[in-house]
Structure formats: structure tokens, C-alpha cells
């Protein structure tokens, strides 16, 4: 990924956080079995395949599957051989995969879209092997007013302040932490993603590097991570790692 390209900052931050958790949970050089649920354009899936891991993508949207297949076709044969694409939604892991099939499960979009996040979460944990890593990306419902507030859109900020209480969001960090503990995949670490309000990187390499450094440092620090647009939440199956 090129940091100078707009829209890449969030993926770059997510990649660094994910690599940190993989390094903490698995021996160096181990080739992992990875499932990416709701993989979208498959940025992380392709990155992990390039690193030597075997990756399965689960995607229900045929248009997104087609886009991913086009991107995959541009990769060398050795990388293409390590990637498998399956048609299905985030609720369908049990229909496609046996328990304990994967070492790492990514769900960076599917949980937000799920009809029942609790059932989806249990299905994700079920296909994780003992000691496996579950990586989730969720909207930070506790800080929805931050972006419109910074933009001066006060009507939207006021509406966002009411949103979590009005909907009883199932994806607030404290709720998700309890859910992870209940399915035997307790929280290991959480980060903020998108703290300073923009996913666009400046064209100048030095400024882009400094922006990345600021986002990365803030994403692991209180109180900054608590007001991020998104939260990257990582659990370990069986508490190992």
C-alpha cells in the first residue's frame, strides 16, 4: 500500500495493529490459516497472502467478489494459489467451515452489517482454532458525534449524541468485550482507527509518515483511542497468546 494514496491510512494502521497481534500470538515464520469474513476489496487478505499465509475470503456481494477476483488475477501465481474465495455472508461461517479450521479470523466489515451480531460473533469464534486470533473492526458508536462536530454540522452531532442510547447499540466496546468473554475468546487488545478525522494522506512522503506515526501512537493511547471513528478489537480463542 502506498501511503500517499488517499484512503489508505486506515488500512495501513489496521495492518500494523494486526501484524502486532499476529506476532504476539504465533511463532515467527508460521504459515497461518486465515479467514477474512466480508472481505470487501480484500486489502488485508491479499497482504497476508503475499506474506505467505493461506487465506480464505467469505463475501456475499457478487460485485465485490468480482472486484476481488480481478485484483487477485494480477497477483503472481504463487500468491493466487494461497487464496480461496467463498460466496457467503458473515452469518454463514458454520455452513462452510468446521470448528477450529482457522488460526486467524478477520471480520472488518461483516459484524457491522450482521442482522444479529451476537450470533455472528459466536460463529466467528467457533471456526477459530485454540489460541487463534479474532480481529474485529467496528464503528465506534460511543463517539459518533466527533466527526460532524469537528465539521461544524451541529444537527448531525446532536443526533449522533442520541444514537447509542436510542438504539441500544450491540457494538459498543463494553458490550463487545462481554460478548467475547462469553464465547471463550476474551479481549486481548483494542485500538482506535481514524482518530484525527481524515483517511486521506498528504502527498508529501514526510508529512504522510508523520501522520501515520501520530495516528498509530494515538490509536493505542487513552483517551485518544476512545474517540476514534472505528475500533479494532482483538480477542484470543481460549485466552491463549
Largest sheet: 7 strands, mixed
User: What general form does the structure show?
Assistant: globular
Strand order of the largest sheet: 3-2-1-4-5-7-6
Discrete helix count: 11
Portion in beta strands? 15-25%
Query: What percentage of residues falls in helices of 4 or more residues?
Result: 40-55%
Work out the number of β strands: 7
N- to C-terminal distance: 28 Å
Assembly state: single chain
Succession of helices and strands: HEHEHHEHEHHEHHHEHE
What Rg, in angstroms, do the CA atoms define? Answer: 18 Å
Unreliable runs:
1-6
Residue-averaged pLDDT: 88
Structural class: alpha/beta
Task: Outline the fold blueprint.
Blueprint: H1 9-25, E1 33-37, H2 43-50, E2 54-59, H3 62-73, H4 77-80, E3 83-87, H5 93-96, E4 102-107, H6 110-113, H7 117-126, E5 128-139, H8 146-151, H9 154-167, H10 173-182, E6 187-193, H11 205-218, E7 230-236
Parallel strand pairs: 1-2, 1-4, 2-3, 4-5
Antiparallel strand pairs: 5-7, 6-7
Task: Pick out its properties.
241 residues; alpha/beta; seven-stranded mixed β-sheet; 7 strands; 20% strand; disordered N terminus
What does this structure look like?
- The protein contains eleven helices and seven strands.
- It has helices at 9-25, 43-50, 62-73, 77-80, 93-96, 110-113, 117-126, 146-151, 154-167, 173-182, 205-218, and strands at 33-37, 54-59, 83-87, 102-107, 128-139, 187-193, 230-236.
- The chain is α/β, with parallel strands linked by helices.
